Amino acid sequence: MEYRQLGRSGLRVSVIALGTMTFGGRGGFANVGNTDVEQARRLIGLCLEHGVNVIDTADVYSQGASEEILGQAVRGRREEVLLATKVRMPMGEGPNEAGLSREHIVRACEGSLRRLGVDYIDLYQVHGWDGQTPLEETLDALDTLVRKGQVRYIGCSNYSAWHLMKALAVSERYRFQRFVSQQIHYTLQAREAEHELVPAAIDQGLGVLVWSPLAGGLLSGKFRRGRELPGTSRHLTEWNEPPVHDQGKLYDIVEVAVRIGEVHGVSAAQVSLAWLLRKPGVTSLVIGARDGQQLADNLAAAQLILSDDEVAQLDEVSATPLPYPYWHQQNFASDRLSLADRTLLG
Predict the structure, then answer these.
(1) Could you give the CA distance from residue 160 to residue 185 in angstroms, rounded to a whole number?
(2) How many CB atoms lie within 10 A of CB 130?
(3) pTM
């Protein structure tokens, strides 16, 4: 297992992390999975055997059940793992049961600590943007949690680039704890993060954790042109995240990944994950799994080395047109591009 530095922090994290959205299976999350404690122990044990040291969850996953199951599953092995969880989404019906106010953050952190059965959270992430709470309040609350020892590091998730930059500016101005990472969606099927989020991370020294790196299973190789398998993908249920805007292009991408996988004797899923691990700025891929066989296959992507030609093939089939102002910068500013600029325009 390879380990990479998480942003400007001194924390070293495995390039594969375990996501636990499948733990619990309550409410709408039943469409994703219903892993119980015993299954969770087996999956986590397999991850630890392969060198994974990050396990990611969120308070909203199955309304706290994911954190509860994770806490029970790592009991006795707490020092072997970095626990990451999130705050922002609704945890009840009350007016302060969601968002990033000081009130909600502090109570949510206390709830996560209790459900996980731990004294501290290694990486506490805001799960999304809250445009109605001042960033000063949000970041002050997170800073307080770090200084109290309840949280070690903080990160954000699902921010736009201007949200991210504004938050970093507020942290610098008031000397609050700074985000060390952002957790974003980034796949062969959805490369929008390359436009601003990845360059911003490189420029500002943030780690990049990628959620759903197989696009909810669509890049696994099972779903190919003319070979749909009804009922086996969460995209064929009420869960439609991430969206598919161009189904034909998705099938083209999968065909190339399958072809490259056949050359290496591996799955299209491994190829898709290995491509991401070659991308600038990417620190770790947060993978989920319903069973040990699926998890073992995904973990093996950490050892798969794609050739430059294979990466170029995947780049080409998944490429998206440059939006403005990037096509203008490519045409008229290419003589003075920074390292961050070159992740998109180089």
Answers:
(1) 11
(2) 19
(3) 0.94
- Taking only the tens place, the pLDDT of each residue in 190-246 is 999 999 999 999 999 999 999 999 999 999 998 888 875 555 555 544 557 788 889
Which residues contact residue 158 at a Cβ distance below 8 angstroms, ignoring those fewer than 6 apart? 127, 128, 129, 183, 184, 185
Q: Which CATH number fits domain 3-345: 3.30.360.10, 3.20.20.100, 3.30.70.120, 3.40.50.300?
A: 3.20.20.100
Q: How far apart are CA 188 and CA 260, in angstroms?
A: 14
Query: Does 61 participate in catalysis according to the annotation?
Result: yes
| Count of alpha carbons within 13 angstroms of residue 147, beta-carbon side | 10
Sign of the alpha-carbon dihedral angle for 140, 146, 148, 151: positive
Determine which one of 3, 61, 120, 251 is catalytic: 61
Average confidence (pLDDT) over 276-301: 95
